[in-house]
Each structure stands twice: as structure tokens, then as C-alpha cells.
Task: structure prediction
Amino acid sequence: MSISNRNEPDVKRERIQSVRGMSDILPGRAKQYVQIESAARRVFDLYGFQEIRTPILESITLFKRAIGETTDIVEKEMFTLTDRGDRTLCLRPEGTAGIARAYIENNLGSNQSLVKLFYIGPMFRAERPQKGRFREFEQIGCEAFGNSSPEAEAQMIRMVVQMFGDFGIPFPLLKVNNIGCEICRGPYIEKLRNYLESISNNLSETNQRRLVNNPLRVLDSKEDGEQLTDIPLISDYVCDSCKEHFGKVLNSLSILSVQYRVDPRLVRGLDYYTKSVFEIYPPDRSGSQDALAAGGRYDNLVRDMGGPSVPAVGFALGVERTIAEINNCLDSLKNIDERAGVFVAALGGPAVQKCVKVVEDLRDASIKTESILVNNQSLKSQLRFADFLKVRLCVIVGDNELANNAAIVRDMISSSQTEVLLPNLVSDIKNRLGA
Result:
């Protein structure tokens, strides 16, 4: 048996880093995720949605059938793998398909005609990382099965707008469009194909392939913008039934005081949508990398996946983009010193022993409390640490305070301080933080 020599020089080891496009969520940022998730859960509860959690790993067949084989996601953006049974699996790139599968597989519509589900979790797309796009990202979304009324879309859009208001983005830009149904879409696709064939020599290789396989995907393309200026618009070809449905959606949005903009080029990038679609952007911009949320109606998805014919509507929002926009909205407030919680500073051994109980009394009262509680820490160093933690109040206990059965409560913003008797400390702290 060989024993390594501790005096030998250290072997240089390569540092292992996170996978490109997949980042660590550090404590400060994780707090923002929790705040957004909590706000979303409150809104979902108000609207009667229940949480569902589906597997991160699914069969690739699910997404090929649900999303469409000619979409960007299926063609080039999925993380795939082959298991020991030679089955091709993938990390989920979006949430709706998995929830529709769960709805069918677990027969969720057997006991109730209306099923309302929400989800929170990571999604994965193997695309080039850039601003607003990551290989691992979190989505919050929901799906409502069983309601074919136009009011269902309007209420869901109203819910999303309320959610962004709760996040601190009060006036998002809402774009909506009518993309028709499978009946009226056929003639439009033929018209679109004829137009694209007339300019096919000027199209990119990707769009030339889409022209053959699925012309609608060209509308969602980020390429050939100048060539597509005069492209036929799907909203000009929808049937009377779809026009009537969309008109009622817009009327309901007006009744609900939701401002919107009809965008005739909005189609969404997934094949399962029908009739109404929508996207939500920050108030001052609407570029392709800026969409905060998107959704719409998909009345044929459950049927096409082997389930019953069930109308449905849903949406998803990107948490990372939402956090970025919240931070943009807070730029003007950067100088505001946002502080919370309490730090307990103890000076000397007897004070440390006393403050062990003080700290737990505060925590028992649901007050966020931090401390060091070691004998040799000066008051200056403890106050410096308390300032680093951005606490609102600092409780100081030394020999003089122990003699008076009291503590000094220091306001970390105004630097004012007051002596408070220890039996009254918890109620005093709660009053100060409440105020």
C-alpha cells in the first residue's frame, strides 16, 4: 500500500465549471425566484388552479406529436438521450405537452368537466445561450381543460396581467391575434405556400425547408424579414366562427379593462395553438428576445395525443426574463436601502449565553434573526457584519444591559438607538418592523 507524500507539490487540477447556458442560482437571486413563485401561487389560488408536477424527462415522441416535427424546438433545440432500452428520451422543452399527457394518462377529466392545473419548474432547450435565452430556464404556467368559451381566454389573460402587476410590472404590453382553426387554416396555408414559392429563391435554407414541410413555421421565423413584408396574413382568412370567437375575446378584455394590441403577424411557435394566441412584453419594447409570457387556445391537442376531444387554453411565463425586467423596473430605486430582520450582538461571555435565548425568542415570533454569539467579537465588527447583512434593527447586549435586564435596539438606517427591557423586546421589535 502506497501512502502519498504530503510534501509533494500539489497536482494542478482542472476546475470543473457549470455547463454552458446552465447557471447556479445563488442565494440573492434564489430569493427573487421564491418571491415570484409565491406571488404566482397566490394568483393561481385566487383563480382556482391546482398544482401539478410532471417528470423532467419524457419520451421524444410526446413533443414531436404535440409541438410539431417542423418546429425549431423539435428540429434543433431538444436535449435528447437514449436509455438502456434503446428508447429516445428528452429533457422537457416546455410544459403544456407533458401536462396534456398527464391529463390523458391519469384520466383527470373523468370526474369533473373543468380541470385547471398550474406548474412551476425547469425547462431545457439546446440553443445558443444569449440575452434572454438559456439552456436551462424556469417557467411558470397553467392549463385549463374543458372550457371552450372566449371568456376563458380573456380571464386567463387578465390573470396573467394581474400576476405581472403583483411582480412589480404593472403595465405590460399585450399582443393578441386570431390564427383560426383547422377548418379555415387549410385555404390560408395554400395561399401562403403559393406566395412563399414565388419568392423561394430569396428565402433562407431553413425557410425553404419549412415551405415544403409546414409553411406556417415561416411566419415564426427570425430570418428573411425583408422578404416577408408582403406575406399574406392569417387573420384575413379565418372563418366566421373563429372571427366571432375572437371578437368576443376582445370584447371581454375590454370589459375587464385589459389593454391590448392586435398583431396580425403573431402566430406563436408551436403547432398546437388554435384561434386566440397572445404574448406579453415589457411596457416599452417587444423584440423577439423580450417576450415575458405567451399562450393561447389549443382545442385539438388532447385529441391529437390520443385523448378525448377537450378544449383547452394555457400560458407560460419565463422566470429569468421576468426577474430581469423586475430589476429594470427597480433601477430608479437602487439607492433605497431595503433592510429586513434583526441582528443580535452580544458583548462578553454572559451576554452570549443570554442572547442564545433572545435569538430563539425572536425566531419563535417569526422574526428573521441573525447573530454571531462568540465571546471575542467587538461591537464594531458585529455592527459591520450586521450592516453587510442589511438588517433593519440590531439588538445589542453587554454587561451594562445585562445589569438592567435590557437591550439596546439600534435602527440601522437612522442610527438612533433605544434601551428596551428584555421582557418587552419581542413586542417592541415586532412593532418597529411592522411600522
In short: Residues 342-434 form a domain with the Rossmann fold fold (CATH 3.40.50.800). The first strand starts at residue 50 and ends at 51.
